[in-house]
Design brief:
- This protein has about 110 residues and is an all-alpha fold.
- It folds into 2 domains: about 70 residues, no CATH class; about 30 residues.
- The chain has 5 helices and no strands.
- The protein is elongated, with a radius of gyration of 18 Å.
């Protein structure tokens, strides 16, 4: 059974962290729950219930978080450089009147 102080510390940390660190912890927690064989639908339901913005989460989305966590243990799956380049490409497409980037054939 967790100590009350551990739970209090976790609650305080959850409230003072940045959105980036909270998102990282969310992905880690989703992966931990999946590794513990908690059903992805149950995790999604809990996340949906807790969403302050009314978002609805799916079992597939939870599994994708677990997949991203697993991949991230080896290397970044979306680098800062790639993010900057994709944003620049998107801005160029929009300036040219396009709706957005589309996957290109390999």
């Amino acid at each position: 059974m967790p100590k009350v102080t551990d739970t209090l510390a976790d609650n305080v940390l959850d409230k003072v962290q940045t959105a980036t660190s909270r998102a990282g912890h969310l992905v880690q927690r989703a992966a931990k729950l999946r590794r513990g064989n908690v059903n992805a639908e149950v995790i999604a339901m809990q996340m949906t219930k807790n969403s302050p913005n009314g978002h609805v989460y799916t079992a597939d989305g939870v599994q994708q978080m677990a997949n991203a966590y697993q991949d991230s243990q080896s290397k970044p799956i979306l680098t800062a450089r790639q993010t900057t380049a994709l944003l620049a490409d998107q801005a160029e497409v929009r300036r040219a009147g396009g709706a957005g980037l589309a996957p290109q054939p390999a």
